[in-house]
Write a sequence for this structure.
């Protein structure tokens, strides 16, 4: 027997309502674990930028973060890119800072943390908490090989960072991803200019 349009409409509404309810129920059921995982990823990112993430298990991250990381201020700035500047502290004194950054790349935004020593002499790490670049090309900025090259880079007031494959004191750009590599460098130098060495990096 052929059913009319009203039956089809009512059937579609009923199925949609059931699926929406199921998705809402699933989201509520997993809401706490999802938020816990987001907090874990953010804390691990901060620890990575500060050079404190080596060998940590997921169960250890929150404890190390609570013990060693606190809100801080660098160059009089305590918040940038809509997030707090964080500090690695030992004995109540800052050892390094995790400075939040945000910038535009080829396909979307870049967000993350740049770690710098408290005396501003060198970087301690670079980590991305969000990037949407092409996997296998620009997306390689999130690979360990690229990020590790941003540890221990010498910093100097009035001097921008740059790429240089032949210089061990400089990071390498990602081969085949010129625009993404340029976006990373532009974003990091902007953080250096506006936050770490305000108004001095050229």
């Amino acid at each position: 027997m052929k059913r009319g349009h009203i039956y089809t409409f009512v059937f579609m509404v009923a199925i949609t309502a059931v699926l929406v309810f199921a998705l809402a129920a699933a989201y509520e059921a997993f809401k706490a674990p999802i938020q816990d995982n987001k907090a874990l990823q953010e804390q691990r990112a901060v620890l990575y930028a500060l050079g404190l993430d080596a060998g940590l298990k997921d169960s250890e991250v929150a404890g190390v973060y609570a013990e060693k990381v606190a809100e801080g201020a660098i160059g009089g700035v305590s918040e940038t890119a809509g997030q707090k500047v964080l500090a690695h502290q030992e004995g109540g004194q800052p050892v390094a800072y995790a400075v939040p950054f945000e910038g535009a790349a080829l396909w979307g935004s870049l967000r993350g943390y740049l770690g710098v020593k408290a005396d501003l002499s060198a970087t301690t790490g670079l980590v991305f908490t969000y990037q949407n670049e092409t996997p296998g090309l620009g997306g390689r900025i999130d690979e360990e090989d690229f990020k590790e090259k941003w540890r221990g880079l010498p910093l100097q007031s009035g001097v921008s960072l740059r790429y240089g494959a032949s210089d061990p004191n400089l990071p390498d750009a990602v081969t085949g991803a010129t625009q993404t590599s340029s976006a990373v460098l532009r974003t990091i130098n902007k953080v250096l200019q506006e936050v770490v060495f305000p108004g001095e990096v050229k």
